[in-house]
Structure to design on (223 residues):
């Protein structure tokens, strides 16, 4: 009888230990953090350049003719990859839907917002969005006509995902998932009038691959 009680107690102890281990072990299904080119986790209060692995400069905003200096121009701007290889582009903030979240993780729904000194043109025209979606006219290009923090503005929400599964390759892509994970499109490059415009793409060969590089310069913030 004592042996039976002892074995029963040991069985319960083992079961409890196993259950407790499952509870305290980090959940492998949690989305991994997004990291910059130095392996540091991205945060919502820091600025980052989006630089391609090879060919062309960083992501920036543009009129479509390579300059912002046009007195007749009316916002919004296009979101483009700079044609100059040594141009880092404009830094961006990544702003999660939950504004209490500081660390950026993969598949987090977020706004992408250019940083710009307020003295420049269209200083309030900085948030990315997918123009013309949903609609029948494609490609769907990205512009800076988005709305920050509004959950109803589905065309202004994006996700960041790893470009591949290599653990030490910190290359990423932007994806657009307006109706959840079952409907996602990568953001790629469409060349229009020599401009490399960011747009939704259906071809994995056209996905824009980039690294996040932290902007460490001393700039005025307009978060």
């Amino acid at each position: 009888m004592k042996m039976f009680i002892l074995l029963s107690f040991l069985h319960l102890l083992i079961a409890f230990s196993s259950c407790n281990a499952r509870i305290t072990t980090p959940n492998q299904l949690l989305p991994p953090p997004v990291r910059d080119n130095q392996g540091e986790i991205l945060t919502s209060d820091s600025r980052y350049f989006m630089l391609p692995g090879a060919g062309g400069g960083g992501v920036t905003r543009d009129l479509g003719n390579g300059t912002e200096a046009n007195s007749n121009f009316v916002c919004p701007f296009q979101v483009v990859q700079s044609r100059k290889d040594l141009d880092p582009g404009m830094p961006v903030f990544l702003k999660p839907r939950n504004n209490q979240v500081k660390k950026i993780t993969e598949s987090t729904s977020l706004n992408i917002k250019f940083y710009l000194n307020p003295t420049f043109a269209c200083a309030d025209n900085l948030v990315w969005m997918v123009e013309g979606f949903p609609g029948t006219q494609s490609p769907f290009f990205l512009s800076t006509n988005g709305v920050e923090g509004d959950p109803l503005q589905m065309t202004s929400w994006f996700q960041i995902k790893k470009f591949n599964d290599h653990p030490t390759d910190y290359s990423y892509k932007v994806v657009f998932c307006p109706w959840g994970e079952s409907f996602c499109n990568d953001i790629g490059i469409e060349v229009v009038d020599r401009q490399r415009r960011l747009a939704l793409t259906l071809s994995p060969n056209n996905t824009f691959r980039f690294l996040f590089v932290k902007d460490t310069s001393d700039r005025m913030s307009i978060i």
Summary: Confidence is low (pLDDT under 50) at residues 1-26.
